[in-house]
Write a structure and sequence with these properties.
Strand 3 and strand 4 form a beta hairpin. Helices cover about 40% and strands about 30% of the residues. Strands 2-1-3-4-5 form a 5-stranded antiparallel sheet, covered by helices on one side. The protein has a single domain, classed as Pantoate--beta-alanine Ligase, Chain: A,domain 2, CATH 3.30.1300.30. It has about 130 residues and is α+β, with helices and mostly antiparallel strands. The longest helix has about 50 residues.
Length: about 130
Amino acid sequence: MVRRKHEQGVTLLEAMVALAVFTIGIGGVMGLQFASVNGTQRSWEASLATNIATSILEELRLKDYSAVNGTSVQYFTKEGVPSSTASYFTATETVTLIINAFYKDIHIVVSWQPGVQLHQIVLDGRIYQR
């Protein structure tokens, strides 16, 4: 079959190449969307973990100085709500009494593991004797 000069339209090969280029482009956009959603989720989790650590430190500062001591572990759900059993977030607080000083050092670690990688937020603070 001989093509004439003024015939219009696309051949099957041209259509397949166009479809391949379109598919590669859509795949790239989907990859960017996935990375964006994943980054947003990790950012939200880090923000929530920071809020949990800050909240624990503020609660310790409100307690009587003599009642703040030792190490304790607290659990929080994925929404940041305290839980009595192991949950999404684990917060460990360690209180160290500094001898011959009027303060205690506080070390708070909030950890969570959304997949295989462990994530942690560390907050250090100090409580002074009143």
